[in-house]
Request: fold
Amino acid sequence: METRYANHPEEIKRYTTDELRKHFLVDTLFEADQVHLTYTHVDRMIFGGVTPAKQELAITLDKELGVNYFLERREMGIINIGGDGVVSLDGVEYDMIRYDGLYVGKGTEEVLFRSKDAANPAKFYINSTPAHHKYPTVKIDIHEIKPLEAGANETLNERKIHQYIHPNVCESCQLQMGLTMLSPGSVWNTMPCHTHERRMEVYFYFNMEPDTRVFHFMGKPDETRHLVLKNEQAVISPSWSIHTGTATSNYTFIWGMCGENITYDDMDHVKMEDLK
Reply:
C-alpha cells in the first residue's frame, strides 16, 4: 500500500507537472494476482484494485492501520469492472458480474477475492473509509440500478449516473460510491464544476481505448491545473479542489466520496466566469 499525504492548495501553485502527478495521480491499480492500494491522508480514504487471476487474494492490512484486521474500524465499497468473480465475506460468497457492486460493513474479518476465469479475471475496484458503526452488507446488482440521466448531447456531457453506495440504496457511515457512463459523443464530466468543502473525492477513469486520454482539471476554481490520464488510472481530489474533466472520446468513471456528510448534492457550484 502506497501512502499519499495531504497538500495545501497554495503548494500546488508551484508544482511542476511531475510533482502534481506524484501527489495526486495513481497510475497502476490493476495487475494480475496483485493488490494495489493507495492510502491518502485526505479523509483517510483507501482506494485501489484487486485482480485475482490464478489465485485467491485477500486484503491483509492490519499493522499499517493499527488494527487486528482490515475492516475492524472501516467500511468498504467494491465495484467489479472485469470478468465474473466472487467476493467471500466471513465465508458468505457473493457472485459479482461486471459492474456489480458490494457494500461491506465495519467488522467483517475475512474478505477474499477470486475470479471464475483466470483468462478473463475480475477487476475489483475498492474504496474504504473509517467507520464508527456496523451497517449490513448489501449486494448491488447492476441490473437493479435505475441510473440518473444528466447532461445533453448539445453540451457534450450526456451521461448516466449509477448510484451504488448512496442513502437511496444502502446505509453507510460516510462512504458514497457510484459509476458514471458517458454516452458516445460526450466527453465532459461534472461541468459546470463544483467543490464540496465537506467531502473529498477520488475519480477512477476506465473503459478507454489505448490512445484515449482524459484531461482532468483540479485546483481551486481561480487557480486550476490539469492532469492527463490514460485508461484505468485514478486521481485524488481534496475538498478544496474542483474535479472535472474532458477527453478525446467517451469513457466511464467511478466516483467515491467521504467526509462530513452523505448528502450527494451538497456541493458549492462554481460559476463559469469564476474559472481561471
Summary: The mean pLDDT is 96.
